[in-house]
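Example S7 (structure tokens).
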């Protein structure tokens, strides 16, 4: 099997691991120079700015599988030819993305952007506004996959009440159809769902109007 792997620094460890697999030949390519990529059976998109490799796929009809290092696939799906499969790294990013979501929520509640602006201006402004706390808040996490469930666990560890939403209702998970009636009771909303035709436009003016004043929306999807 011939596997095209980006020659960039962020992808070299992966290339080395693949090269150690019997029957796999790694073919390095530059995502910014698709015209010089070799012929291969599998295309591994680069870790950084993966959509650059779409042009490699378009130039090589022999490619039969594309492997992404991200969870999302929406930017690639429209470019797949019939017979080309697509794999994602769904589940691999639950830890770091859920940490990012938690840090974003805390940053906004504790008013760090404002504090940093005061610090840059060399002003002692610890009493210019009341910071808020995550404890006691109610968080709505839309998306019950690996990222959503990891995020829900981290929010709960900070004593927030968490409502998890998925495509269908099940034990511990509300259905996405219930979202409109849930909004008013949540001060924090986290979007952890993939962008699909079913989720496109989920957060619109009506959605935002249904939230309480000063609510926080973090889009981790």
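Recovered sequence:
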């Amino acid at each position: 099997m011939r596997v095209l792997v980006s020659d960039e620094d962020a992808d070299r460890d992966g290339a080395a691991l693949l090269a150690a697999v019997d029957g796999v030949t790694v073919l390095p390519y530059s995502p910014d120079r698709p015209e010089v990529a070799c012929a291969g059976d599998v295309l591994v998109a680069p870790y950084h700015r993966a959509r650059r490799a779409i042009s490699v796929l378009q130039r090589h009809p022999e490619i039969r599988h594309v492997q992404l290092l991200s969870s999302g696939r929406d930017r690639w799906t429209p470019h797949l030819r019939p017979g080309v499969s697509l794999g994602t790294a769904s589940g691999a990013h639950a830890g770091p993305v859920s940490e990012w979501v938690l840090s974003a929520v805390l940053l906004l509640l504790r008013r760090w952007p404002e504090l940093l602006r005061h610090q840059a201006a060399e002003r002692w402004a610890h009493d210019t506004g009341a910071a808020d706390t995550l404890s006691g808040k109610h968080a709505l996490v839309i998306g019950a996959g690996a990222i959503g469930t990891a995020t829900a666990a981290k929010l709960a560890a900070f004593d927030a009440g968490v409502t998890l939403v998925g495509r269908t209702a099940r034990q511990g998970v509300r259905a996405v159809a219930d979202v409109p009636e849930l909004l008013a009771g949540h001060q924090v909303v986290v979007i952890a769902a993939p962008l699909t035709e079913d989720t496109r436009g989920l957060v619109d003016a009506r959605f935002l109007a249904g939230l309480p004043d000063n609510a926080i929306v973090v889009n981790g999807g």
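Notes on this example. The CA atoms of residues 30 and 184 lie 49 Å apart.
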